[in-house]
Amino acid sequence: MMQTGRYKRMIRKKGRGIALSMVLISVTGMVTILLLVFLLCLSFFGKGEFQQVYQGNTADIFSTAYSSFRLIPKDISGEQYVATFWSNSDFWYHFWNTVGISLAVIVGTVIVGSLGGYAFARYQFFGKNILLYLFILIMMVPYQVLMAPQFRLIYEMNLLNKAEGIILPSIFAPLGTYLIYQYVLQLPEEQFEAARVDGAGELRIFCRIALPQMKNGIMSLVLLVLIDTWNLVEQPLIFLSDEYRYPLSVAIEALENSGNLSFAACIVFVFPLFMVFLLGKDWLIQGIGHSVVTR
Amino acid sequence: MKKRLHRYGWCFSSLCVLGLTCFYLLPFILGVVQTVVQYSPNVKWKGLRVYEALLRSSTFRLALKNTLSFMGVGLPLLLLFTIVLSYMMDKLMRQKVRGTSFWFAVHLLPMVLPSVMVTKVFDLLFAEFGVLNGLLVSWGEKPVKWLSSGWTFWLLCLIFWWKNTGYSMVVLFSGMQNVGKEQREAAALDGAGEVRIFWQIVLPQMLPFLRFILIMGVVGVFKLYKESYLLLGKDPCDEAYMLQNFLNNNFASLNFDRTMATSVVLFVMISIFLLAMFGLAGREDNQRNRKKRKGSTE
């Protein structure tokens, strides 16, 4: 009798716990959803209506009127989208800057990372542990610490104000190697040994056996790197001096100054990333799992 | 055979090692040397003058104080919040409650979204003549300077938490997958309540993951420069002036020696922090291993 009472109580308690968890999770999640919805709605404001509603946020510094709040515009207009897609050529210019930098960094990181990570995970060689510690250390140091010395180097290499100056250091960031290292560690060892016994060369083993199995790890790396390069702020500010070379992540603010609203540009900017996220969410989660250092 | 593998290890890793050395290690080491040695017109020992001046400078102290207090407030709350959140996610996933994976993905979104998106919305809401002040005035209250007062600190905290929750949640969540199911069930059968199971079984096994979150949280504080710059510009108010602003500003004014000295001070502090984190853990592991060994011999 007592046992069943206890059981019932447990179910009731559990149910309440679940409900409470659900409420908390949806409340914190709603913040992000509201932010996105708000931005999406703002992107459909015409210029006139925006200036009328959000008076305090217009460029006019002499205005002393406060902004009011309106979520859904009275007349929905695609003015901003038209401006971004057609009349505002700056947008596409910066957009392709972002795409170019991201692609270059991704391709480079994948090559460097998969070679290095494979070596660290599969071979024993002199100095391996010290090198691994160095990689982890640099991974955990904030970028600002390395900024000044790196600037000096880029200056000496005569790469200032060129996209290469951003791309080259990013390619050799330690995250790629470490991530692939962690991934390869958990692949089974036997097949590599078997191939070796069969007389396959090391390069052949890497290309034919290791690479196909590293596919998931590489995809995780691609996602993590893409997220970072799509959102570059510090590096372009330091390494680039011509504004037309800026990627969108920094240039969106400047688009506003030319008298256009840039909410639609924001939406277009984030859209590819959003789609990639939807498609590759599992890779991302897996990648984060592999980036953990627990030793 | 062994020797051959040696060679291949070096071949495969040479690219990344070379890159790391050229782009990260060597420039840093040369920079450190440059803070104490003068090259031109003739080689001369400068001593620690730069460091002395740096530690005396009031801006540096302000930046250091702000950064430390930001970490003091931001990190513990981030840890607390994400551990609760990931525990709940774990529980909901286990019970297969519908909609959990959707909310899981939503919590990951902030780390994916570019910083401009947040700062744009924050600017609308919190600008001097922004929406929130408009509301305050219409209620007959005084407007608040959200972006240039003590409030800015808390707004940055808000962005920090929002931005870093997803990553930390996934880290903890993946850690929780490793906590033995049998162990939990056994404890539940023995009559241990949920809270007790959490404290005595789940939490101790999560410690390495918590440590990693703490470390990445410190990195995250510095990454906040993106949002800080996009929202407040190059010169934020005193309350929001942090070490990353100090570094970037000194850098922009071509004060190379001072920037480098700050980097070195920061590097030393972070190394000590990392050593403390991993050193402590190392001792713990050793103790556990010793206990295990004792158990096996008995």
How would you describe this protein?
The complex is a heterodimer of chains A (295) and B (298). With 295 residues, chain A is an all-alpha fold. Chain A is built from 14 helices and no strands. In chain A, helix 3 packs across helix 4 and helix 5 packs across helix 8. The longest helix of chain A has 41 residues. Chain A is globular and about 75 Å long. The model of chain A has no long low-confidence stretch (mean pLDDT 86). With 298 residues, chain B is mostly helical. Chain B is 80% helix and 1% strand. Chain B is built from 12 helices and 2 strands. In chain B, helix 5 packs across helix 10. Chain B is globular and about 75 Å long. The mean pLDDT of chain B is 86. Chains A and B meet through helix 1, helix 4, helix 5, helix 6 and helix 7 of A and helix 1, helix 3, helix 4, helix 5 and helix 6 of B.
What would a concise description of this structure say?
The complex is a heterodimer of chains A (295) and B (298). Chain A has 295 residues and is mainly α.
Number of strands of chain B: 2
Low-pLDDT regions of chain A: none
Mean pLDDT of chain A: 86
The ordered string of helix (H) and strand (E) elements of chain A is: HHHHHHHHHHHHHH
Class by alpha and beta content of chain B: mainly alpha
Roughly what is the average pLDDT of chain B, rounded to an integer?
Answer: 86
Summarize the biggest pleated sheet of chain A. Answer: none
Lateral strand order in the biggest sheet of chain B: 1-2
Oligomeric state of the chains present here: heterodimer
Rg over C-alpha atoms of chain A, rounded to the nearest angstrom: 25 Å
List keywords for this structure.
heterodimer; A: 295 residues; mainly alpha; 14 helices; globular; B: 298 residues; two-stranded antiparallel ribbon; 12 helices; 80% helix
